[in-house]
Design a protein that fits this description.
The chain is of the alpha+beta class. 20% of the residues lie in helices and 40% in strands. It is built from 4 helices and 12 strands; from the N terminus they run αβαβββββββββββαα.
Length: 240
C-alpha cells in the first residue's frame, strides 16, 4: 500500500515537473504565414487591375528566438513571387538585454539598415484565448491611435517577450497578429523546439546605418507635404 502511494506521489511530481518544463520554452524556431488583403491594403480602384483570386497575398517568415534575442526574417524561397512589390519583407533583430533592435527594410526599392530601441506598446490583455500551432494563446489588444486596433495572441509557454516584426512587450511570444479589419494577419504554422546557433543573430551590416529618427526626419523634410506620406510613414514605422 505504501509502495503504491509512493508511486502515485512520484507520478504526480513527475507530471508537475513535465508540465512546468514544457511551459518554460526559452528557445525555438517559429514559422509564420502572413496573409495580406491587397484590396484593403492598396485601396483605390484595385478591382480594375487586381484579380479576385490574387487579392490575398501570402508570405512566409521565420522567427528565431532565445532568452536574449530574436530574429524575424523572410523565409528564403527560389519560387518566383507574384506581386512581390505589394508587401514589405522586413528583417528585425531584437536584443532584449540591450533594449535595441536592428532593422533591414526595403523602401522604394532600396535596402536600408536601421537601428532603434525596442518598440514599446501599451497592451491590454483579455480573457479571450485560442490555440495556435498547438499552443494555448491569450489575446491582447494594442491601440496605436483612436482608429486602429492590433490584436495579438501570445503563449505563456514560450517565454521570450517577442513576436513577428518589431512586436514584443507581452509575457510570452506572440504567435498571431492581426489588424482589426483583417487586412494583415500573421499566424504561426509551426514551432520547432531548437536552440538557434549564435550565428543566426549576426546580420551583415551596411556602411551606412540610420537611426530610425534620423531617417524619419530626412523623409519628413523631403516628402512631409505629400498627402500619402503620413500613411506610408505610419505603415513603415508606426505599426510594424
Amino acid at each position: 500500500m505504501k509502495m503504491t502511494i509512493r508511486k502515485i506521489l512520484l507520478g504526480i511530481i513527475f507530471c508537475f515537473i513535465s508540465i512546468t518544463t514544457n511551459a518554460q520554452i526559452t528557445a525555438a524556431k517559429i514559422t509564420y504565414e502572413r496573409k495580406t488583403n491587397l484590396y484593403k491594403k492598396l485601396k483605390g480602384n484595385t478591382e480594375n487591375w487586381l484579380k479576385e483570386e490574387d487579392k490575398i497575398k501570402i508570405d512566409f517568415f521565420e522567427l528565431y528566438v532565445n532568452d536574449t534575442s530574436s530574429l524575424f526574417k523572410p523565409q528564403e524561397s527560389e519560387l518566383r513571387e507574384n506581386l512581390s512589390w505589394a508587401t514589405s519583407k522586413n528583417t528585425v533583430l531584437q536584443n532584449f538585454n540591450l533594449n535595441t533592435r536592428y532593422l533591414i527594410k526595403t523602401i522604394w526599392g532600396e535596402e536600408l539598415h536601421l537601428t532603434d530601441s525596442l518598440f514599446k506598446r501599451q497592451w491590454h490583455i483579455t480573457e479571450s484565448s485560442r490555440k495556435i500551432a498547438g499552443y494555448a494563446c491569450r489575446k491582447a489588444i494594442w491601440e496605436p491611435n483612436d482608429s486602429t486596433k492590433i490584436y495579438a495572441w501570445f503563449s505563456y509557454d514560450i517565454t521570450p517577450s517577442t513576436g513577428p516584426e518589431s512586436f514584443n512587450g507581452l509575457p510570452g511570444t506572440i504567435l498571431g497578429i492581426a489588424t482589426e479589419d483583417g487586412g494583415v494577419v500573421y499566424f504561426a504554422k509551426k514551432v520547432e523546439l531548437i536552440n538557434p546557433d549564435a550565428k543566426v543573430f549576426i546580420l551583415p551590416k551596411k556602411k551606412k546605418v540610420y537611426a530610425v529618427n534620423e531617417l524619419k526626419a530626412q523623409m519628413e523634410k523631403q516628402y512631409g507635404k505629400e498627402k500619402w506620406f503620413k500613411r506610408m510613414l505610419n505603415e513603415q514605422f508606426g505599426l510594424w
